[in-house]
């Protein structure tokens, strides 16, 4: 239970991380950020990109939807600032098409960078043509109504993670969330990791093996790992 | 139970909607048609396109398959007319690859526009190269035999919808079915909706918010929706 | 239970099929090979390509992983020869991202043709850019550690099939495994089938129906299959 | 598309099969009835009994629900006659708890024999205590509202089968539907089968093998089936 | 991201609701509590009881597990007071058997009322015999190790809900969480609802229809709902 | 690929472990055996008991089925000896009801102890009444035919494990397989473990904590685990 997750409310002002830090996190991508954050913050992989290749990061405008009802997405549109990402979940499991080409037009006009939704979307051909990136649980042509109150900019649970308004979401082939107040610290750690990985990549490209690069031969032996020349040798040893 | 869903029969002549109406429905796409039809006729989203980007509409040649057996697809090929779509389901859940490059060659030669199958298909690289659009439940290299009798052009249940021979199926990122006798009435409603949506889209592109465009501010207030400046304000109000 | 599936061992020398036979199988593709092998050897379709369009065949370097641990992939890299394919499964169901851009760099440097893994992978954008084909059960940004011993080049069960080290795996939109000692016999059968299918394809392209090409009209009649002119005729006959 | 599946209507009078035939079908059970009906009419096994051991058959009062809304179940209750079974599906996939102890009280008071629902139910402890048998897709404590119109006694698609009002549904560890007009013919076939099976069962109990009882030894040999004394013999023969 | 969800920590003292309020919530059961709480707080129905018929409520001792590792359950055991419920989730999806008969012995000795775990458990026969109620995502004989640090009594996300240490969890055929500070207010609302429902139940038992009890006939008519005598009448009206 | 997994064959004589060892393994149960065998041999938990509470162990009569065809189960019945267990998988994923009350009668008459099947079964009420334990992937009333050749007593892959004829399968709330030649060694290890666990259980029953019993306090501290009195203390430390 999120204490502030009441229905029928919207919060206008949210905390946002500095633009520069968000850009750094976007450059790093979700996997490196997740690693830099000590492996917390991953949304369940059941949310998948509607089209391949996009990578975005932005401040979260959180939306709590009612099943089959996208009213709150319109409320969110007004509260979003350019560069924000709308992230929505639903009070009960639902795969209807909450979002399509019309709302994407509106989002683009407001400068919204993308949508992450634990629900369904439609008009995926248009979304791709408009280059508006979306991550969703399902694709469904079934439209929705505008009848029942949810909330905007309250904490939500989306794909197994709590998202607070203003938290930074980084999405590409996965999705990771970073608390807004940690943006710089995580970006620092991520870039350090990136540098480290670049060095490793160069070595790998030259043909150096991970066994040598990470000095694993000794630990393997210590752990009792054994090499056999052939399968026969292995059989004889059992 | 579909009374006419007997095994071992094929019906040669089926009712088809006028070509012009089918073209109008194809232009509209499955999501708009579904909306125009008052949200009925959607096939379950578990049927997915084998490759992205295609949109087709056509009269349904219905096929009832036996598990692991694609005999009836050959019978269907003869009864199909140019512009038809073959839509198949199976007497029991089965994901074998009922359809591959050979049958696609045959389908293209007969002028068949595409295949929708609650089952598996194979050779998806070839299907894409041949630009023969297919929607299926699975992709499987496991081929099938030609031993047991199903039926062609009897009513079937496919992905949760009854399909009668000659019904119009519209497929893109979703699939919708329209009774052949309703083609014009649904196309009319769909185009009206399309016009309405185009006007909305123009407004959205200009930056007008859905809240204003759909005059939602008053209804939101009436429903008890409340805005707070900050999260603190919200907490204090609970 | 695989008797030789002990933990903490690696076998250096494995049996490989002749390069030429592997190339023939690669040209044929998984569906034809599966058919040529009398429909055995298909891995479950839950393993899917990370990007579309690749087709590879190679000798299997088998890897038994522990959950959340990719140590053994580094061991495998040293034992792989150019042209080999790494195929990995896990001692318990796990979808973490065992493999990403760094290991892909290493694999490319060693001449490894691709990866098949009953587990998760990350950095799919990079994998596509590097053109390193991967088939996996999941995509996950969650990285792994290097702590616990699995094995390399012991028999494994992957996606429902036993894979012995050196067995040939053929992967495109599906995956099929061929015992290394059967390479030639299966390639022969596959090419024969391919020739047969090419002839059929030509006939299909000309518009000949499967009913005629496969002489199905007589068997259909014998099996009791009946044609009706119209749905009314069918109803009257029930 | 079911032509008569309009929203916002109820039909008062439906065709029912004679009580005696329904009783015969109930005695036979769903598996034997399915067999007697030549293996058509099985609802998908995703619908499961809330508690084990019940077996019922009755005339179908069909209900088309809206997601998260059980209004129509109240309408159905008035139209049901003692011995009827309520069978419900939803316009979109939904697992909310449409039915609980209160509605079960009402159903029992009206003489309804049970509920089959492609949706969720709640209060399963009470349902078991009240001995009111229910088959559902899910168990969920999430209650529903009474706001939106569905329909009662129109044809529906439920778990992959079309159900017409008055069709006979037989439910135990599976569910089968029989057209009301076929009740006697199917009951006859089922009892014949039952007799046949009883004779077989007696033989089986005595230790007679199926191979002998069904005279399978000859057909096996004809099909090329071969016995080997030991695994070594088999290996040598390959 | 839960800010306080760090790894490697345990909090000794937690807030608990008064025993009396917890007892009232237990009597009400999860479905009524969920309703009384305005339909928030339901855990996903993917967590299921290991054996039927149990109903418990208690203060949450929260546990964050690492995959394949049950170390933290031992830490939790010391911090639990009689009447508490242990509720655990894992840093990554995992179905291993974290809990079996030994830990159940320990839990019973400490007065723990039950376990809720988004993971697997084993020894279910013993759990039933010991009458120790467990709700889990899976049943698996695969045991776990005690190697890696998680946390105890930090906020966790379990089956889609945030659980704070000390929150009240009510579990029977579903699971609902109530913030500890709301215990009385929710129990009050629940008992009011219970009284209301009892009155309704009496009426239902007498045979009064929901249509009359809830005065639905007028609203139905207003919403445009129409009755037809027969299916023919309905058809003629379309 | 299992080299000996040819179609259309049966092997008459198989290796069996001594009766006494099988009895010891049965007494231990699947979880303890799995642990004693160093955590290998677990079948995927997707196979579930048709009714609760049974525990059996026996020598495996392996059956390779064709989809929708139970012919080979009759062949298996003749080759089974009293105390054996029939374990079956299918050449392709299939949930039809391969086994029902008739075959159970035959199995009981032959002294077969139970059935494990990666497929569907029917007549579960009868199976329970007859006390014939079955583990299956699905329950389905859909019967099968006797047309196509599979094999009996060849190695099979069932639920992710290779099963050789004569291997010992232990099934209760999970399933574990033990190579027949290892029966004694595994039973010895299991009983040792059982003794060890009994001692622990006594301690747990007295209220001793796992932290003390397993001497975990020191390792926890070494790993950096920290206790805080209150949530406030934890927050201040972050």
Put the structure in a nutshell.
6 copies of one chain form a homohexamer. Chain A is an alpha/beta fold.
Note down, in words, how this protein is organized.
The structure is a homohexamer of 238-residue chains. By secondary structure, chain A is α/β, with parallel strands linked by helices. Chain A is built from nine helices and twelve strands. Chain A has helices at 19-28, 30-36, 71-79, 101-110, 124-129, 183-206, 210-213, 217-222, 231-237; strands at 9-11, 48-49, 56-65, 85-90, 114-121, 134-139, 151-152, 156-158, 161-163, 168-171, 175-178, 226-228. In chain A, strands 2, 3, 4, 5, 6, 7, 10 and 11 form an eight-stranded mixed sheet that branches. In chain A, β4, α4 and β5 (114-121) form a beta-alpha-beta unit. In chain A, α1 packs parallel to α6 (183-206). Chains in contact: A-B, A-C, A-D, A-E, B-C, B-D, B-F, C-E, C-F, D-E, D-F, E-F. The A-B interface holds A 3-4, 6, 8-14, 51, 71, 73-75, 77-78, 95, 97, 100-103, 105-106, 108-110, 120, 122-125, 128, 138-143, 146, 149, 153-154, 165 and B 29-31, 34-35, 39, 42, 45, 48, 52-53, 55, 172-176, 197, 200-201, 204-207, 209-211, 214, 216, 220, 223-231, 233-235, 238. β1 of chain D pairs parallel with β12 (226-228) of chain E.
Tags for this entry?
homohexamer; 238 residues; alpha/beta; 8-stranded mixed β-sheet; 35% helix; 23% strand; elongated
Total E-strand runs of chain A: 12
Q: Which runs of chain A of at least 5 residues are low in confidence (pLDDT < 50)?
A: none
Percent of residues in β-strands of chain A: 15-25%
Instruction: Note the overall shape of chain A.
Output: elongated
Query: Roughly how many Å apart are the termini of chain A?
Result: 54 Å
Helix content of chain A: 25-40%
Tell me about the largest β-sheet of chain A: 8 strands, mixed
Helix and strand content put the structural class of chain A at: alpha/beta
H/E series of chain A:
EHHEEHEHEHEEEEEEHHHEH
| Tally of helical runs of chain A | 9
């Amino acid at each position: 239970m999120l204490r502030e997750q009441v229905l029928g409310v919207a919060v206008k002002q949210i905390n946002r991380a500095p633009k520069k830090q968000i850009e750094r996190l976007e450059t790093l991508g979700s996997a490196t950020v997740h690693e830099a954050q000590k492996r917390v913050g991953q949304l369940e992989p059941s949310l998948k990109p509607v089209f391949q290749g996009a990578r975005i990061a932005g401040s979260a405008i959180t939306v709590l939807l009612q099943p089959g009802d996208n009213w709150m997405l319109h409320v969110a549109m007004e509260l979003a600032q350019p560069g924000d990402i709308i992230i929505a979940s639903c009070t009960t499991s639902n795969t209807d098409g909450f979002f399509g080409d019309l709302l994407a037009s509106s989002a683009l006009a407001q400068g919204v960078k993308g949508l992450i939704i634990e629900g369904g979307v439609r008009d995926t051909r248009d979304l791709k043509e408009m280059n508006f990136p979306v991550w969703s649980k399902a694709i469904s042509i079934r439209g929705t109504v505008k009848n029942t109150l949810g909330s905007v900019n309250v904490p939500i649970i989306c794909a197994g993670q709590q998202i607070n308004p203003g938290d930074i979401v980084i999405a590409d082939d996965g999705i990771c969330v970073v608390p807004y107040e940690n943006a710089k610290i995580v970006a620092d750690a991520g870039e350090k990791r990136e540098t480290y990985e670049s060095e490793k990549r160069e070595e790998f490209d030259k043909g150096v093996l991970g066994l040598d690069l990470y000095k694993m031969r000794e630990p393997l032996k210590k752990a009792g790992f054994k090499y056999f020349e052939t399968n026969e040798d292995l059989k004889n040893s059992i």
